[in-house]
């Protein structure tokens, strides 16, 4: 080996040692850092994701939730939230889609994010290709205070992209909300529209007599939900509101991508278009 080659080899070993030492120091401060997983929202390499909270599961148990929790279509209970940015598994799914469909170049797109989640909101707001606005009726600190069933502040055909994630199960007039989402979306625009979907039930279950916290936990999975969606019921409502409905599963993203980003393998992303 030449002298130059020897020096390169020594330098390489020193760099590798320094990198390992740095990684060890980082793990000492942030123990979740690693290479097993990656969060696509904050782009952090992770050793693990946090599982869903015990208190939530206990509420389901205490109120005799009538469905098997593991039959939810898009929910990774064991790899639920990123320990760095707190993005849920569904937030990570949306980030993967944005990166795949929008990329980092192109014209500026107007994005409205209903009931924003912190990690994903920052991801979208920091993106150079989006004119981002957050929206909610009750949440403090959003850009727009708006009732999703009556969004007069947005003009017809004015929004390129919207995100409506785990909102409609809280809304009594969900079909009215879907029609409003269709109204504000530009022709050719698209929206991520997600709700909890319980596999194995034929029709969406909704009963006006179910009003107590305990009964809503029992039948709807949360005390502020007003229905439990079936797959067919949810997609039919979206189509009746005027949308074309696309379903993107692991076949679209790649099963290895799902595993790397902590997304449950049967997860489905619903993207509507006008």
Describe the fold and architecture.
This protein has 274 residues and is α/β, with parallel strands linked by helices. Helix content is 35%, strand content 19%. The protein has helices at 3-29, 54-62, 89-101, 118-125, 174-184, 213-220, 231-240, 250-253, 255-260; strands at residues 33-39, 44-46, 109-114, 130-136, 144-145, 159-165, 185-194, 244-248, 269-273. The chain is globular, with a radius of gyration of 22 Å. Mean pLDDT is 90; it is low at 1-26.
Low-confidence stretches at least 5 residues in length (pLDDT < 50)? 1-26
Give the count of helical stretches. 9
Which structural class matches the secondary elements? alpha/beta
User: Total number of β-strand segments?
Assistant: 9
Order of helices and strands: HEEHHEHEEEHEHHEHHE
What does the overall shape look like? globular
How does the major sheet shape up? Answer: 7 strands, mixed
Termini distance? Answer: 65 Å
What's the alpha carbon Rg, rounded to whole Å?
22 Å
Percent of residues in helices comes to 25-40%
